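Consider this one:
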Amino acid sequence: MSTLAHTMMTAARSADSGLAGPGDLDRYPYAEAPVADRVGVPAWEGADPDLGRVGRRAAGSRGRGLHGQLVQQLGQMIVSGDLGADRPLVPEEIGQRFEVSRTVVRESLRVLEAKGLVSARPNVGTRVRPVSDWNLLDPDIIEWRAFGPQRDDQRRELSELRWTIEPLAARLAAGHGRDDVQQRLADMVEIMSHAMGQGDVLTFSRADTEFHTLLIQVAGNRMLEHLSGIVSAALQVSGGPVTGCDRPNEASLTQHSRIVDALAAGDGAAAETAMRQLLTVHPEVERVVPAPREH
C-alpha cells in the first residue's frame, strides 16, 4: 500500500466526515407527514429545541458553530416544507426560539438569502421564497433535500446530472494528460481497493469523491470545473444503490481503473464509455440512469 493510501485510510477512520452511511438518511429531524397534512402545525415544531445550548453540540453540526447550526436548522425546515413559501421569518422570534443573538440570526438569514431560500425587503421583512427561486446547485441545499422528504427526487436528479456531466468530463480529461494527475487518480483507485478489502466504506467514499472531483477539474473546461462541487455533494449524500459509485464492489473498481487507463492512453472515447458504464447500472439492482420519464 502506498504512503498516501495508508495516510488517507487512517485519517478517514479517525475523523468525523459527515458522510452518509447505512441508516443515516433519517438523521435530520424532518416530519414525515406531507406538508398538506401539517396545516396548523406551529412554525417551529420539529426544530431542535436545544440548538441554542449546544454550540455547543458536536453531533450533526460538523464543527460549523452556532451560526452554522442555525443556518442548517432553518435551511432544513424551509427545504422540508415546515416553513412554507411566503412564510414571514421574524428575527426576534427566531432569536428567542433558538436562544441566539440578533447578530447570529441576521448573519444566518443573509446566508439563506444568498442561497435563494429567503428574501428580505424593506417594509416587508424576510420571507421564504418558492422552490423556483432556490439555488438547487448549492451543496447545502443538495444535502438538505437529499436527507429530507424530497430525498428520492434529489437523488434521481443528481444521478441524471452526473450522467450528463461526468462522461463528457472524462472524455475531455483524456486530452489534458499530466503525470501528477494520473498518479493521483491511480492512487485513489488503490485506496478504494484497499478500503473495500477492509470493509472501510468511509475511506472508499472519500477516495471516490476525490477521484470524480479531480477528473472534472482537469477536464480543461472552467464551467465544468465549477460543477465539481455538485458531484462531490452528490457522492457525499448518496443514500442507496443508484450508481456504481454508491457502494464498494469489484465492478466499480474495474470501471474506475479503466478510466485511469484510458486517460493515460489519451483515449477520450474509452474514458467516456467507462464512465457511462460506471454511472449507468449498479450491479446489484436493475436501475438505469437516466431513465426516460413521462411528463
Notes: The two ends are 50 Å apart (CA to CA). The CA atoms of residues 242 and 286 lie 9 Å apart.
